[in-house]
């Protein structure tokens, strides 16, 4: 299972989190987020990360020029679109950067929030399901209603996000079988400052599932 730790802002924390077992690191390219870092800062972190780790730039309603500017400096392997991007916009991004993984995030409020997803699957590689918040786009620490996802079987691999932490991760994986999990505020001291002890606790929990052959 893929494990993405999002909102990395510091070189040493990125390195430590990759060593603990994260398969993907996320970098917030959304300027109004407290976890925002610029493309030079992202590249400083990427420089010391092993090449088998996925490096995901998180954008919300970006222009193509904005994405291009970041990609010119930071060697990302994936683009996460976390705003209200249309399927057509996602397809444009995929066409321009076919070698990158395109992840489309959906903020799930009700079962109706899942209805739009089929329109996107042709244009993207991976889905990410996050909690809805009226004020913030992501990194909210809110858990989405997992019952809504009980019968969710999309045509693309998917990440479960939203309020996951070392205390609730096993319950989440008992209820659902995502292809990956994504955590941010559940493993940090304050926005953008990851708590390595909490990340270690997360992997201890995940290894318990692994030893029962469930992950
Ligand atoms: O994390 C942010 O600050 C953020 C800001 C704007 C758009 C997206 C953002 N985060 C996206 C993520 O992928 C987070 O990991 C995801 O929302 C889960 O966060 P959390 O509930 O804190 O685990």
Describe, in plain words, how this protein is organized in 3D:
The protein is of the alpha/beta class and 215 residues long. The protein has a single domain, classed as TIM Barrel (Alpha-Beta Barrel). It is built from six helices and ten strands, in the order E-H-E-H-E-H-E-H-E-E-E-H-E-E-E-H. It has helices spanning 11-20, 39-46, 64-73, 87-96, 169-175, 196-211; strands spanning 2-6, 24-28, 54-59, 78-81, 101-108, 126-131, 158-160, 180-183, 188-190, 193-194. The strands form two sheets. The protein has an eight-stranded parallel barrel with strand order 1-2-3-4-5-6-7-8. It has a two-stranded antiparallel ribbon with strand order 9-10. Helix 4 links the parallel strand 4 and strand 5. The radius of gyration is 16 Å and the shape is globular. The ligand O=C(O)c1ccccc1NCC(=O)[C@H](O)[C@H](O)COP(=O)(O)O binds next to strand 2 and strand 8.
């Amino acid at each position: 299972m893929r494990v993405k730790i999002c909102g990395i802002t510091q070189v040493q924390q990125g390195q430590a989190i990759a060593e603990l077992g994260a398969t993907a690191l996320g970098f917030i390219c959304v300027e109004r987020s407290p976890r925002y870092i610029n493309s030079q800062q992202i590249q400083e972190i990427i420089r010391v990360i092993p090449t088998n780790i996925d490096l995901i730039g998180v954008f919300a309603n970006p222009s193509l020029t904005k994405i291009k500017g970041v990609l010119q400096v930071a060697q990302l392997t994936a683009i996460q679109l976390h705003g209200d991007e249309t399927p057509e916009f996602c397809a444009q991004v995929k066409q321009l950067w076919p070698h990158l993984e395109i992840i489309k995030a959906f903020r799930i409020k009700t079962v109706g929030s899942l209805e739009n997803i089929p329109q996107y699957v042709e244009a993207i590689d991976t889905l990410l399901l996050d909690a809805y918040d009226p004020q913030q786009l992501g990194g909210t620490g809110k858990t989405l209603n997992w019952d809504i996802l009980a019968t969710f079987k999309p045509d693309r691999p998917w990440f479960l996000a939203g309020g996951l932490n070392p205390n609730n991760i096993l319950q989440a994986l008992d209820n659902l079988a995502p292809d990956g999990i994504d955590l941010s505020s559940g493993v940090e001291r304050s926005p953008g400052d990851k708590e390595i002890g909490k990340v270690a606790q997360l992997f201890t929990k995940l290894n318990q599932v692994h030893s029962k052959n469930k992950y």
